[in-house]
Amino acid sequence: RSLKRKMGKIEKGKKSKVGGGMSGGGGKMKGTKAGKVKKSAMKTRHDAKTTYPGRETAHPNPFAGLSATSTKPNKEEHGHGHDHSHGHEHGKSKAALRREKTKKKKSAEESQKKIEADTSSAAQSKKEPAKSVFDFVPSPTLDSVAAGKAAFEWMIWPKTSEEFFKDYFEDTPLLCRRSNKYYGGFFGIDHVKTILEDFEVQYTRHLDVTKYKEGSRYTFDNNKDLPESAFICDDHGRQDEEVVEKVDVVDPSMVWKRFKDGCSLRLLHPQQFHDGLWYLVFALQEYLGAAVGVNIYVTPSEKQGFSPHYDDVDVFILQMEGQKRWRLYPSISEEETLARFSSRNFAQSEIGKPSLDVVLSPGDFLYVPRGCIHQAVTVGDTHSLHITVSSFQKTTWGDFMLKSVPQMVQTAMDENVEFRRSLPRLFHSYVGVMHQEVTHKKREAFETAFSTLFQSLIDYVSIDAVGDAMCVDFIRTAVPPPKGLHGRLKATDVEEEELEKAAAEVEEVSVKVDSYIRATAKNIARIVPLGGDTVRLFHSAQNERVAMPMAEDETLDHLYVEHAEGVPARTTAVGEDERVSLKDENTGMVWLDLSVDEAEVVESLLLEYPTTMAVDELPLNTPSEQLAFANLLVKEGIAEVGKRPKKKEEH
């Protein structure tokens, strides 16, 4: 409730900029200046156990206990797939090497059996939850974060979320065996057929048709009837320009013809066509606090659609139909553990032997940490269909610091004259790669000056401003809550009359003076002071049901200026003097500009969520202002009408 005080700080010049444009209310983080870091402390450990910031306990290496292979990747086993063990086993007889190899193989088999036995016994000890994903929509009796936790635990059952984040997250694959009726027909191949027939599905935007054959990947993302060899891809998935078309609407008959010929289907962002998937994505993003994506994979019997690879996201696999064999492999190098970017396509000879080899059946679940190499192939005499849920893309400490450094430097330059002084004249005559081996007094003085300034940067960081910047990007990528305008639509590509009907339903919701309101969801919006009397409210209530990609650095800077340009976010007719949210057409970001008093109302709604607030008690000047602003928030989907909160019992 300190927005006025924060705004006052900004006016006095205590600015905390992110990416050159955003002002935040957070103050500087004062503390001891960073000293020199020892080289030994900078080396990454690769022991069997690793500790992470904010965790009190040690956690196993991603593949410790899953196999008898070394926890340290090496070229002999994983780099090129060749066996050069004789060059490193001096003094061992052939018989000893054979015994050691047999022991390793037996240990790997036993460890995998233990994983399956553990998950099986856990499943037998707990009764399956009698819930479907449709129960995870927030309601007056269920807040969005609690709904998200329920959805997450439905996905990973019989494990709890506490067990998952303590023992598996970013470290260890998790396999959960359940009955073949666990998902209850939530999504199947008939849903795919309906989507292809009823919607204007486009290649690459909504659908990929692929094949993995004899070590090569093929992509058939158009309706051209060309020889199969024309669709081959390189290691990075690229094709000849003559094959690639900008946009091609899917011909369902061609898709199923190719499916019959052995191609796999990947349906991208299917939550825009299927309400249940939309509810699942929304619930998970509320609980995880990170962007969530979802794809559907349909693969013919005994076929493989994609080359071995690793992803830049954590992957949650829900097996819906058929059976699929998954093979997981340790990282080829230490630098690829918890990878920040997805890999190229690997050849079989590069990845060695799998550390985990399992077959998923309907009802089963598998978690694959990001950076873990994997491949999958359908087994049995029928197709396989699974849902892949992904999250935690670019939400690392390193990503936070990437946004922190520009902010620190900008603030330091604003407030400390030493950062604005010129570099030494002709410094380039002793600084640069060609000079790094040369001893030079001026170079030594340059290094000392740079080190001193660099260490003082910690005095100018604002973790709150950086946190706001990352949260705003998260809100931009989020799907909207299942309420408001888009919550009344079956998909984003709809007829105009359906849109008008949905808008009319929104208009029917009216707020009265004696009403109670609350935020639509816990993470629906973020308040960012811009300076002066303007506060910008970024929100996801008017987003579409397609997850947006995470923004590259500084692409959102133009949204942090006082008079940012945008178009009305609502596609229906807007009155001349009507206040509406604006939308940036390039990034998809939606916002509403508020006064400081209005921002305090929203801040209270967000901090007190899921508790409702009485309209006539909102901290605004007059009853008419209270009613008008409450109606605006409800109409924009940022707030909803709720029930009067229960009075606390007096003791």
Structural class: alpha+beta
Poorly predicted segments: 9-90, 484-495
Tell me the Rg in angstroms.
28 Å
| Count of helix runs | 16
The count of DSSP E runs of length 2 or more, i.e. the number of strands, is: 23
Biggest beta sheet attributes: 8 strands, antiparallel
Alpha-carbon distance between the termini? 28 Å
Principal-axes geometry comes out as globular
Our estimate of the beta-strand percent is 15-25%
Sheet with most strands: strand arrangement: 5-13-10-15-9-8-6-7
How confident is the prediction overall: mean pLDDT?
75
Helix content: 25-40%
What's the arrangement of secondary structure elements?
Elements: H1 3-11, E1 17-18, E2 22-23, H2 39-42, E3 49-50, E4 59-60, H3 75-79, H4 94-125, H5 144-156, H6 161-167, E5 174-176, H7 189-198, E6 207-213, E7 216-219, H8 252-260, E8 264-268, H9 275-288, E9 292-299, E10 314-321, E11 323-329, H10 348-351, E12 356-360, E13 365-368, E14 373-379, E15 384-391, H11 397-415, H12 441-456, H13 463-477, H14 496-508, E16 516-519, E17 525-531, E18 534-539, E19 567-568, E20 582-583, E21 590-594, H15 596-608, E22 613-614, H16 623-635, E23 639-642
Antiparallel strand pairs: 1-2, 3-4, 5-13, 6-7, 6-8, 8-9, 9-15, 10-13, 10-15, 11-12, 11-14, 16-22, 16-23, 17-18, 18-21, 19-20, 20-21
Helix pairs in contact: 5-9, 11-13
